[in-house]
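Issue 218. Parser rejects a valid record. Input:
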Amino acid sequence: MPHNKASIRVLEKAGFHKEGIARKNVKIKGKWEDHQVLAIIHPEDK
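Output the parser choked on:
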């Protein structure tokens, strides 16, 4: 989730890169929530 800065930092340290925000992607406790989309590319595929 975009507000979970600690989780995003862990993923970035592992080599993931931010790609964008998926708006109202997941329904949690009856409320639609945004999610941060991150991805990692295998070094041989660069």
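Fixed in the parser; the record now loads. The chain has one domain: 5-45.
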